[in-house]
Amino acid sequence: MLLELIELSKSFKSSAEQVRAVDGISLTVDAGEFLAIKGPSGCGKSTLLLMVGGLLSPDSGRVLIEGTNPYELSNDERARFRSTHIGFVFQQFHLVPYFNVLDNVLTPALATRFPQAKEHATELISHFGLEHRLHHTPAELSTGEKQRVALARALFHQPKVLLADEPTGNLDSENSEIVLDALSQFAKNGGCVLMVTHDDQAVKSAQKVLGIKEGRLTPSEEAETLMTS
Ligand SMILES: Nc1ncnc2c1ncn2[C@@H]1O[C@H](COP(=O)(O)OP(=O)(O)OP(=O)(O)O)[C@@H](O)[C@H]1O
């Protein structure tokens, strides 16, 4: 089991009320699986993914990534664990604006000693067809190119777990297809992908689709209804 979530919950307190953003979610994703969770805005998708990625501590429940609970590690260990075991792809790319493409893809190497990091990063960049953009900054790239840089960075440490939050949200259909193909290929190569989205097209690439509503998973029949509503 590459990824296991057990009764994960998180609430936020605003001045007026307490919002239960994620409410007791349990699921597993195995090697070779691409799972999509689909739901409307505000239903808890990003909160869930941040907790899975070791970036937001849950109020209760457990996250196990290859058997390790990142929240049982020290801050430094958790940062290193995230960098080496989990790849992230976000809607907004989160590239470092003043780094060029090569240096952006190399950022995961900052926390670790990776032999021949530059050669490895260059290979990944070429894999995504961006060898002619090595020394460009993000501002000089198209949105599709930015997401391909983010993918290359996510794959730098050859993680087994790839987390994607609305990865096609800013992309046209051609670039969406490139990104979704890369996620599918990652699962085919033995990794696991957990993607959250509200995009009907994007979920078609996944092997399994669940719904999420008010912080709770809904069974797949309901997910079908959610998708067409
Ligand atoms: N830091 C926070 N402080 C207070 N409330 C928050 C915080 N983060 C999320 N929430 C609330 O938790 C709920 C779930 O938010 P979340 O961002 O996880 O939803 P989402 O499904 O990812 O939405 P979207 O698709 O619009 O990004 C929402 O009601 C949101 O307002």
From TrEMBL:
GO terms for cellular component: membrane protein complex; plasma membrane. Signal peptide: none annotated. GO terms for molecular function: ATP binding; ATP hydrolysis activity; transmembrane transporter activity. Gene3D superfamilies: P-loop containing nucleotide triphosphate hydrolases. It comes from the Bacteria. Keywords: ATP-binding, Hydrolase, Lipoprotein, Nucleotide-binding, Transport. Its EC number is 3.6.3.-. InterPro entries: AAA+_ATPase, ABC_transporter-like_ATP-bd, ABC_transpr_LolD-like, MacB-like_ATP-bd, P-loop_NTPase. It holds the Pfam family ABC_tran. Residues 3-229 form the ABC transporter domain. Belongs to the ABC transporter superfamily. Macrolide exporter (TC 3.A.1.122) family. This is Lipoprotein-releasing system ATP-binding protein LolD. It comes from Gimesia aquarii. The gene is lolD_5.
